[in-house]
Amino acid sequence: MRIPLFTLLFCLAPAAVASGDAARGRALVADTKKSLCLLCHSAPIPEVRLQGDLAPSLAGAGSRWKPNELRARIENPRALNPQSIMPAYGKLQNPNRVGKPWQDKPILTAQEIDDVVAYLVTLT
Ligand code: HEC
Predict the structure, then answer these.
(1) What tens digit of pLDDT does each residue of 6-16 get?
(2) Distances from the Cα of 65 to the Cαs of 22, 35, 107, 120, in angstroms?
(3) How far apart are the CA of 56 and the centre of ligand 1, in A?
């Protein structure tokens, strides 16, 4: 059986562009013990009743930023703003400033950051 080339391209393209899972990303953003995003930000996640106001709302983030900009910000905000109080989710933490469970791995894995980005791009 021959599969037309455009069918193959159609199947492969979305996987290549978006390796993240928006539903998992939403759950991570809503997780106030692991990601802590909603300690500082608000987002259209009504089941989390207490949300932060130290940082811009994540609503509309997908219109303001491209996926690679969102990823860069989450991995290491201080590369964009040296004064930023936002944690660098993709970097190892200063061992003097975090507890043992966080010392030898970043807060979020690369896959988890992709998931969060996949969720944020839906916030248009
Ligand atoms: C300790 C507070 C804090 C936490 C926790 C935090 N952020 Fe932030 N974030 C900020 C601040 C403050 C800014 C504003 C820019 C700056 O100062 O770096 C920001 C900016 C952003 C922006 C750009 C906002 C815009 O549209 O201008 C995005 C997107 C973002 N954060 C996503 C996240 C995600 C996703 C998480 C969780 C994985 C998170 N942040 C956790 C404080 C925080």
Answers:
(1) 555 554 544 43
(2) 16, 20, 22, 9
(3) 7
